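Chains adopt folds. We examine one example:
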Amino acid sequence: MTDAPRQLSDADLRALEEEYDPEARFRTVIRPVAILSGIILFLLSVYHFYTAGFGIPRATTHRGLHMGVSLFIIFLSFSALARNRHKTDGFAILGVPVTDWVLAIGGAVSAFYVPWIYAQLQFRVGNPLAIDIVMGTVLLLVLMEAVRRSMGWPLPVIAALFIAYAYFGKSMPGILVHPGADWATIVSHLYLTSQGIYGTALGVIATYVFHFVLFGVMAQKIGLGQLFIDLATALAGRFAGGPAKVSVISSAMLGTISGSSIANTVTTGALTIPAMIKIGFKRHFAAAVEAASSTGGQITPPVMGAVAFLMVEYLGIPLRTILIAAIVPAFMHFFGVLVQVHLEAARLGIRGLRQEELPKAWKVLREGWLSVFPLVLLVWMLMSGRTPFLSAFWAIAACMVVYLIQRITAAGAVQGVRETAIGIYEGFVAGARQSLAVTAAAALVGVVIGIVTLTGVGFKIAFMVTSVAANWATSLHGVLAVLPFELFSIQTLTLLFTLLMTAVVCVLMGCGVPTTANYIIMVAVAAPVLGMMNVEPLVAHFFVFYFGVLADVTPPVALAAYAGAGIAGANGFKAGNTAFRLSMGKALVPFVFVFSPSLLLVTQAFTLPDFVLAFAGAVLGIVALSAAITNWLLGPLLTVERLLLPIAALLMIAPEIVSTLIGAAILGVVLLRQYLSGQSGQRPQTAV
């Protein structure tokens, strides 16, 4: 039998989240600084809540204010070295090193400077004053340090390399050569225009994402997250491998209000991982299930982390269009994890939860239905065409009303009002604190985007990638010419190789860069590659986004998997490898919707027959691949069947009808062979 799982306290879980999530590694500060930070964070949330409902000021002012306040708090909240966050070295004021106070003030002043001189910007762009260059240089350096503290080294290094590319353009090799730019030109472009730091990325965080982060915090406060876990347990806990299926379904539900893979893993994993281990799943598998499920939160409407709102700005289409497009791919991800969980439970003969271990669905809904109201209101407003920030305003307001009702019901009128005021203050502080790192990252990503627009390097990379893909496609097409029919055209093979190279770059980039930053960079660098292959912009954006998310469960930097392994007491690398193969559905589906855009429902190429064929092919392909990975379908697989099923999966997700039929035929033959041989339900003698 598997050893009994250890139970982790709330403090243990917080420590675990800090260990694997740099954004949660806050410094221990003395009371005056904690009060100062808390008040500023609360006022920042109040400002955003007010402007969401009553109008957002001029873009540059709004973005500068948001960034300046965030930078100030970052240097009070994050120490220069994470290992020193519980102590103070050197000369300090109120327990915070003097250098951090200097950086905090320098970041705030340089961020506020551009809104201050806004009326003169049209005369300064391209002809900056000396003070402009100084302020811009200060902000660049402070931003890099802020992101390093709150997210790590990778993104600042990438930004520095792009700046170096702009400066040393004349020394670049081959097609990458360009005239180069002096420091004043670089700073002017990145600091004084909307093409750099104050660009779309920062604007989306300040205008949309902050409100939805705040909504997620307030929704958790009224018990919506716990309601999802209890409801998933009631619905799925009784089936084979019940707690694992609860993990998948509860993570899918929780993903509607939270886009953080690590936070989701810790929140739901604290309950589901010990339960999975208790009924017989191996520790690394339990951790992997929770991690793979939790990463799906970033692709689940209506929040989708920050990316849905970035797509709104980049593509110029309504948010509801993006949310509708995300429904089927999100379903495919969770379906893929669920299928592998089911097959693994069937292979090992793992039971579900007993009746006495299950909550009653009707009781869960009866006691917690009020918590669902803000989410329903949010979705209704978004789908009815209201602006995202106005929808968030009313959803947050609804959370506060629900919280007030809950507190008054539990503690009486006077005490309930007092507890509500404290709870709203804590929620507003927590919401603003959770947005700090992503704000700095978005501003720094603006540097990368600015260099791309300044040098035109994106199109140069696109040309190189498509040229290599075309050469590989021509070679493979020549090899396949021996077949009596054309299985794939040269155009299809060229697109396939382009997608593969793009996917690899997205995953590698995501190993050290947060999902939102990864998406923004890849849109600037990789999306033009797909554009040259005539892929619709919406489809191209979804493709790079999905593979960026996959990095959270891709070793060696599978942070969500490592967090799950910490709860399970398992080997982190082994959990990461398992989480990656559980996420194979997420890896397959982007290829499906590139070749069959109808899967996204709202593309120009949508037709019902194409959608049905693509949907059926994706579902069957996921089943075939899951069976091959698990070594179980109706029963154990023969070696030849395990080799054939991945081929069948790839054929079924391909765009040509001939390949789809061939793949379905292979799967059908395997199913028929297992059924006729009477292997269905036979389990190998595996120790649990």
